[in-house]
Amino acid sequence: MQIKHIIAAIEEIAPPALQENWDNSGLQVGDPSAECSGILVCLDPTEAVVAEAAERGCNLVVSHHPLLFRGIKRLSGTTPVERCVVAAIKNGIAIYSAHTSLDSAEGGVSYAMATMLGARVQRVLHTADNSLLELTVYTPRDKADEVRAALSDASLATDAPVMMSETDRTSDAIGSDSDGLPILEITHTPLTALTIELPSHRRREAEIALAGMGAAVSWSFKKLEEADPRTGLGVVAEFPEPLDTHAFIDRVKSAFGIPVVRCNALPPDGEKISRIAMCGGAGGEFISDAVRAGVQAYISADIRYHDFGEWADRIFIVDAGHAETESCTKMLFVQHIKEKFANFAVYISATEKNPINYL
């Protein structure tokens, strides 16, 4: 079985179209056509994880957090990321990451958090902008290959096929008469129409790729599908039975295996918590969404100091840790891979450690 077949299975539960435009989910290192000897699953791809994969005979590491967030200019081994890339290449190990693609997926990270807490998901907290667009580019026929290459360089023409058709389209041009005065000339220029489907968050990349092609190239977008309300970041959920504040905190700590939580002032004594929102990882930007959803508590991680105070009179905020709220991703990967490929060697990393320690 080739690595690309494993990737295709992962992308069933974490479609690349769902990732945020700042993210870098996908194949980070390696040859997708290589035969897969085994899979090691982790939260963060590191040198230690790559070494463990090599020791276990696994040539594919599947992680939640991407190894490559920003471009690297050299592979000299001076940073942990560079050393991890070098180690992966030396050992013939591919690294694939499903980050916000899994965060925003139906049944993804926040859905798993709700299940761990024993709460029923009611809806998505912050709906993803994942509407589908049809891009049509009109180009002179002799520039069609150049335009296709520009779209491919922007990674827009690799996930979806480009449809090409011949068309005659009226174009306006400014010419001059015998006296040198400007006149508007209307001509019929044979053009090629290139059509490609892409998620709405890739629109800006397409426009940038096409902007340098010259005035002879024009394009338009048409919305094909609206955003799916079942996908997005975070969820709103409800407990079958309300919990008092201390029981709620105990459940959060137990569910995510954390000894302490950071939170703002506890709700008044006697107040029960039944309706909550949550977002795995750094979800401070969605506190306002949680308030608008009318929940009593919001669980996430990496909450800023001032957020605890500014929202204290409107919502109970619980920071349960970044790694802790996203540890469920490893089991999501393992369960789905085993469902698709029974008896295939899939392991959860035993060497990976939370970089944050509680003393």
Summarize the structure.
The chain has helices at residues 3-13, 47-56, 80-90, 100-103, 109-117, 144-153, 203-211, 245-256, 287-292, 305-310, 322-326, 328-340, and strands spanning 26-29, 39-42, 60-63, 94-97, 120-127, 132-140, 163-176, 182-199, 218-225, 232-244, 262-263, 272-282, 297-301, 316-319, 346-348. By secondary structure, it is α/β, with parallel strands linked by helices.
Question: How do the strands and helices of this protein lay out in sequence?
Answer:
Layout: H1 3-13, E1 26-29, E2 39-42, H2 47-56, E3 60-63, H3 80-90, E4 94-97, H4 100-103, H5 109-117, E5 120-127, E6 132-140, H6 144-153, E7 163-176, E8 182-199, H7 203-211, E9 218-225, E10 232-244, H8 245-256, E11 262-263, E12 272-282, H9 287-292, E13 297-301, H10 305-310, E14 316-319, H11 322-326, H12 328-340, E15 346-348
Parallel strand pairs: 2-3, 2-15, 3-4, 12-13, 13-14
Antiparallel strand pairs: 1-4, 5-10, 6-8, 6-9, 7-8, 10-12, 11-14
Helix pairs in contact: 1-12, 2-3
What is the helix content? 25-40%
Radius of gyration: 25 Å
The counted number of beta strands is: 15
Number of helices: 12
Low-confidence runs: none
Q: Report, as a whole number of angstroms, the end-to-end distance.
A: 45 Å
Q: Which strands sit side by side, in order, in the main sheet?
A: 5-10-12-13-14-11
Percent of sequence in beta strands: 25-35%
Categorize the overall geometry: globular
Largest sheet: 6 strands, mixed
Q: Report the average pLDDT across residues.
A: 89
Order of helices and strands: HEEHEHEHHEEHEEHEEHEEHEHEHHE
> What structural class should be given to the helix and strand makeup?
alpha/beta
